[in-house]
Specification:
The chain is of the alpha/beta class and 822 residues long. The protein is built from 30 helices and 21 strands. Strands 11-10-12-13-15-14-19 form a seven-stranded mixed beta sheet, sandwiched between helices. A hairpin with a 2-residue loop joins strand 6 (273-274) and strand 7 (277-278). The longest helix has 27 residues, at 41-67. The two termini are 49 Å apart. The structure holds thiamine diphosphate and magnesium ion (MG). Residues 229-231, 271, 273-274 line the site of magnesium ion.
């Protein structure tokens, strides 16, 4: 417990100096003769072979891109190809010692890493295991192609399988590793330990940390390697990933076998450029990238620069660093110095670097240099090396012909099955737990102090006499979320939760009070203030097979996790061809009282992103049932919670919130009050002003409003809403989001299309103002009030006899506000 880790002024105020140790730079100095003790002839030749395969693969793509032809085979590839010609030694050295249990993540320039890791896996797996993998992958579709008419060994078939799977993926063919939905920059193949590569620079910087957490928390074998570029050192997710992965608590607070650092290597493939920006000398200030490690922790992340033009130096570094990880002293930072002789992409005219520089690196070409070493040391004859190069050309021609043949390698037929990609956006599974073992907890559920205290709470807001229950006795919305969460912790051994103030504080808004007593550190922990990495690590954890709840303390801070929420979390299920699941629930608290940067409702932003489920309960009954469903599912769910509602009791479900487990399916709106004259559809906390408005409409004007609580934004079943509109002929929609571009507009549009004939008036949206959110004392001028709803009914839907509007809803005012952009 941090309470047991006292920080006394006498210690931290005393004068001292921070000492930095030495960071090795290119210190590998073994001769090839010395290395004969570590490698047999077969090993040396294998290293050469793997580098040649990568070179030929990339050369083939380069020729296809620049000349539309390779060895007489014509093809046009319009998509991306960020090639790694020059970086082969770094890739092969990185992968050489890794097992299939060791996972690699990558970047936009990872073809070489995929092939190196794949060839390493083929080398390590026995033939039966290898055949099983190929046979089971998408029903053996790719295997059938490469096996046909081929008489070589299983290992040779596997080499063809690897090259074909990768190339077919790059060319967007259905037999590709990810059904052609990942493509060049995202391709991966998990059975060989190849995890997603990423088109967003630095995207793997925090996702890979989540994978390492998955291994640690679930005691899985293996390490994780995050292969990213030197320029990604300028990216937020990378810094946040480093912060997250080096937290003291792994070594100070995590207990028993969980104690110790993460099994993770940040391997910067340092080719000295980020597109045209020179990271050494222009766009960064680190000089030598490995320096960064010195500032991170006392271990200096065991940082080191290694010569990535020598495969043996890289292998040596990975062997040493892997030992550090197995001693639980990770993570490690490696600065693997390399150079891409090819351009950033084939269209790159290299206007930012001199011919002399490229020539100087070309002269040191790692494949030629390594070949010379092998022949010089009498390890291989030059004829053998030539044969390897020739064979690489032949195999590449063969694979290319297979991959571009539309009959053998078709694309997904979206003409015939127009919804096929749609079906892959979500995995839509219902799983109690992601793995079968006993969950680690610190006490029986019944003994938990919060669970015990909830037994004495009133689960409906009024008692038997109809009197409102006191706040102290009331079962609140936060209790509903807590019950769903703790229940899942006792069901699913992989479930872990993290975010800011998740542990001793009891969750920022007391939702998690009671969890600290129940759970060991490795299942519930405080994160750094790294919203990007809070979500990014959850993504990595989820895609490896664990269930996770990540928390964003205020909706406004979603901006800090923009890449993770917009580009990563929603994409990987479909981009994998539905191979991976993403059981990640991101709890997002929507604030109030704290002004412009702490009270925004951004549900519309996330609902706009394909691939996310979006939930916004407004009652304790719904909060518990929807959280249960979110946690039972295998899809990413953004779960909004209004801070204005955490204290609220159940007012609609008359039998109160059940103690038992129940699920409310995501996507089903709920009629909170029936009515005949007008439908009011609400999202989130606006349910309550809508109820108040409905009371006034009924009592003063005899108009009965049917109130429907959306509960979920995505998915959404419009049928109950359309049915209601058929009855009432009128609909008003309201939520706390600023009205311009809010999700309500999307709903209004869809309802107009689906129920135009039933509508007596256009759907009317009542949202918040398009302003900054002012101080609490002025909030009533910002968020929709019941008066605003009645004004809108009067002005735009049904004139109310004798009513005088309090706000200006005239067309003129609307035009003016739009003209002004407010
Ligand atoms: C967030 C983001 N910004 C910019 C880009 C455009 N871009 C693609 S690659 C690249 C350079 C990356 O350099 P580095 O990380 O060193 O990798 P390298 O290309 O050298 O392998 C840039 C700027 C991007 N894909 N993602
Ligand atoms: Mg670079």
């Amino acid at each position: 417990m941090p309470k047991g880790q006292n920080i006394y002024p006498i210690e931290v105020r005393k004068p001292q100096f921070i000492e930095f140790g030495k960071i090795p730079v290119n210190q590998y100095a073994k001769s090839i003769d010395e290395e004969k003790n570590n490698f047999g002839t077969g090993d040396f030749v294998r290293i050469y072979h793997d580098m040649v395969i990568i070179r030929e693969f990339e050369t083939m793509l380069n020729l296809i891109k620049t000349t539309n032809e390779y060895k007489g085979v014509p093809y046009n590839h319009p998509g991306p190809a960020h090639l790694s010609i020059g970086q082969e030694a770094s890739a092969v050295g990185m992968a050489y010692n890794l097992d299939t249990d060791d996972f690699i993540f990558g970047s936009h320039r990872s073809h070489g890493e995929i092939l190196a890791k794949g060839l390493s896996a083929i080398h390590k797996l026995d033939e039966d295991a290898l055949y099983e993998v190929m046979k089971n992958y998408f029903g053996g579709a790719a295997l059938k192609v490469v096996e046909k008419g081929f008489t070589g060994s299983v290992k040779e078939v596997a080499k063809h399988f690897l090259l074909y799977g990768a190339l077919a993926e790059i060319f967007a063919r259905e037999n590709g590793f990810n059904k052609g939905l990942g493509g060049s920059m995202h391709a991966f193949f998990t059975p060989f330990g190849i995890y997603p590569n990423n088109a967003i620079v630095g995207g793997s910087g925090d996702i890979s940390v989540g994978a390492a957490l998955y291994k640690k928390i679930n005691r899985k074998p293996g390490i994780v390697v995050c292969n990213i570029g030197d320029a990604s050192m300028g990216c937020g997710p990378v810094w946040e990933g480093i912060a997250f992965s080096t937290m003291d608590q792994y070594k100070t607070l995590w207990k028993g076998e969980y104690k110790g650092g993460l099994p993770l290597i940040f391997n910067f493939m340092n080719n000295l450029y980020g597109m045209g920006g020179q990271t050494m000398g222009e766009t960064m200030g680190y000089g030598i990238l490995a320096r960064i490690g010195a500032g991170v922790n006392p271990e200096m992340m065991h940082a080191e620069r290694v010569d990535g033009y020598n495969p043996l130096a890289v292998i040596d570094a990975f062997r040493r660093k892997k030992e550090i990880l197995l001693e639980k002293d990770g993570p490690v930072l490696l600065d693997t110095l390399t150079y891409r002789i090819s351009g950033h992409s084939p269209s790159d005219a290299s206007s930012y670097r001199s011919k002399e520089e490229v020539e100087a690196w070309r002269k040191e070409d790692s494949i030629i240099a390594f070949g010379d070493k092998l022949t010089g040391a009498g390890i291989a004859e030059s004829g053998l090396l030539e044969q390897i190069r020739d064979e690489a050309g032949e195999i590449m021609t063969h694979i290319l012909k297979l991959a571009i043949n539309d009959t053998v390698s078709p694309r997904l037929d979206l003409q015939k099955n127009p919804d096929e990609i749609g079906r892959m956006m979500f995995s839509n599974r219902s799983l109690d737990k992601m793995e079968n073992r006993t969950p680690e907890v610190l006490m029986p559920l019944e003994e938990n102090p919060r669970v015990k205290s909830l037994k004495n709470k009133e689960r409906f807001y009024k008692d038997k006499e109809g009197k409102p229950v006191s706040k102290a006795k009331l079962y609140q919305l936060r209790d509903g979320i807590f019950e769903a969460v703790i229940d899942r912790f006792y069901k699913d051994p992989t479930l872990a939760a993290w975010g800011e103030e998740n542990r001793d504080w009891g969750g920022a808004f007391a939702v998690y009070r009671g969890l600290t007593e129940a759970l060991p550190y490795h299942r519930l922990f405080n994160s750094p203030i790294s919203e990007g990495a809070i979500v990014g690590t959850a993504i990595g954890y989820g895609m490896c097979g664990g269930r996770v709840i990540a928390e964003i303390m205020y909706c406004d801070f979603l901006g800090r996790s923009g890449d993770e929420v917009f580009n990563q979390l929603p994409k990987w299920q479909a981009m994998s061809g539905n191979i991976i699941k993403m059981p990640v629930v991101v709890r997002v608290s929507v604030g109030s009282k704290y002004g412009a940067q702490h009270s925004q409702d951004w549900s519309s932003l996330v609902a706009h992103i394909p691939g996310l489920k979006v939930v916004f309960p407004a009652t304790p009954y719904d909060a518990k049932g929807l959280m249960n469903s979110a946690l039972q599912g295998t899809d990413p769910v953004i779960f909004f919670e209004s801070q204005r509602l955490y204290d609220i009791g159940e007012m609609f479900h008359v039998s109160g919130v059940p103690e038992e487990y129940y699920e409310i399916p995501l996507g089903e709106p709920d009629i909170k009050r029936p009515g005949d004259d007008l439908t009011i559809l609400t999202i989130g906390a606006t349910l309550y002003p809508a109820i108040k408005a409905a009371d006034i409409l009924r009592n003063d004007y005899g108009i009965t409003a049917e109130i429907i609580d959306a509960r979920t934004l995505v998915p959404f079943n419009y049928e109950p809403v359309i049915e209601s509109v058929r009855k009432t002929g009128r609909i008003l929609l309201s939520s706390d989001a600023s009205s311009r571009g809010s999700f309500l507009k999307e709903m209004a549009q869809t309802i107009t299309e689906l129920a135009f004939d039933s509508l007596d008036a256009p759907p009317v949206v009542v949202g918040s103002r398009n302003w900054i959110i002012p101080a609490h004392e002025m909030e009533n001028y910002f968020f929709p009030q019941s008066d605003w709803i009645i004004d809108a009914v009067h002005e735009k839907i049904i004139p109310l006899k004798g009513y005088v509007s309090k706000t200006d809803l005239s067309a003129g005012n609307s035009l003016k506000l739009n003209r002004e952009g407010v």
